[in-house]
Amino acid sequence: HIYVQPKSVDSIVDDFAVQAQNFANSLTLASAFSAGAVAFNLIDILGDGNDVAGIISAIVGALSIVLSFGTMANVSQYKIRNEEARIVFHDAKFQGVKKAAFCLMGNTERQGVPERLNPFLAHMDAEVQKFIDAVKYYGEEDPKSFVEVYNEFKHNRNDPTALDEFDRLLTTYFITEVYHKNSYVQEHLVNIHRGCDEMQRMLSSTSEKSNSTHRVEAAHLFYRLNRFSSILATSLQRGPTRFGFLKQRRFWHWDCTVAVRYFYNMFCCASAEGPMPLSPIQTESLGIAMQAKELSEIAGGEIMRRKVQDLYQLYHATRESEIASLVFMSGFLVFTASWIFSIARIVGRAGGPTRVEEAGAWALLASTVGAVLAIFHLLRKLVILLGLWSVLGNKVSEAPTALSKENISLVRTVTMTQICLTTLRVTAATGAAVSLPWALAVQAYDDEIDAAVELPFYVALGSVSMALFATIAFFGVEYVVRYRLPPKLGEFVCEAFRDEIEDAYKMMEITPNDVDPKQAQERETWEYVARDFLHKYRFDTVFAADRFGSILQYIQSGMDRRD
Length: 563
Prior knowledge:
By secondary structure, the chain is mainly α.
């Protein structure tokens, strides 16, 4: 069944996750081509009209247009995926975070919460409304008596016996006697019963463990979440997506404004103590996640652990969405500058003034932004890869069998190939970032510069060559090294970390309810374990989506050994 299959790699929302790593590669190649176009254009100008250099400059400039457009399309798709993750959090998980904070409050603090802010009642109100709509739709008996019983429970919501009585009537009267003929209506009543069961379990699990320290912290977090609720709701980008990467947005959500907000984020500090004045949503989401983590450590128990992961996932989705806007704007600058350069060359070759070609070459200076951004993201990836390579070295020495040692050594070898490729791309991007302004400066002030005018050309040529070599080597790694990886790669990797993964399962496991199937609840726990493990060990930086997916799915499937 489609709804019980392990989640795909697209479900992973993390810092610089899976798909995002390709943007730095394409930005590097586009920036290197822009540097090459300027460098060959310089030789064309200073070399008294070298036709070969001029032709190469035009070709490389045109390739930069294609690459930058591909980057823009792919990063737009990535941004939409992260925005969809934020919507899923708001619609499916945010209420659960509020419930956890509410439960960790003391009885006195809970009784002081207005009815409209009670997360359990908000959830049950929504389910009751769905039930009433279903009753009207199917022409079933008027739910007046049910509504009266429900309103009585709401009036005495702070009395545990009122909840028990409402749930008793729900299961022994309304489900079994009044609406027993229509399974569709019964399903909505079962959802209400599930809400009652959740409320009973969560409140009872914290009532005896409450202490003054975490009661205050929980109340602080609860009201902070409620203030954040409207901010999060207005920031969501709902609506249809066209062609997989186009979406209509309000001005505040345009890529140019989001890119400016990303830089503003750098001057704002997230705090677990409370919201900072004028802090943007990325900063506030991190602050809430930090506060929830502190509360989870103080309170102990199972109630807040999963919620902390959900909040950090919201933060990563928000941050990655803003980074995607920044990458889009960099790609757009390279795309626009490459068009201006190409058109200027056409005008110049058609007999236009030389200054038109010079101005077109200066437009490519904007590609330096793309090169610098590529360097930043590639260095992030390089640090992650070096850390993973070191961890795998320890796992090789700890492997219990010769076969396990061989398999982990193979994974470590693939990791090293990625380290080498990333180093090549960092060097290529650095060369592009240096040669672009240098070549333009030589073109404009060649009489005033003492250094050899050919130097920026050779630097740019080395940048282009290294970027092309990295691309060719990538195909070699993909279709030779990765192709030879064993089909049971996911099992080999996960078995090396089995003890750690099983400990994570114990940490993420919660008391099961009596409503949902045990298998469904276990599957949800394994999903949290998979996200926790793959956030700590970033195998997505080493393997493509298919190989990385085998690791993800092996964990989600319960770590069952296969013969």
